[in-house]
Amino acid sequence: MAEHNVHAVFVDGLGPSLRAHEHLVQAFITDQDLMRAISSGRLDAEAGESTTSQMVTVRAEDSLEKAAEVMGDERCSHLIVVSGDRPEPLGVLSSLDIARALASDSAASGSAA
Question: Are 31 and 7 a contacting pair, CB within 8 Å?
Answer without folding.
Answer: yes
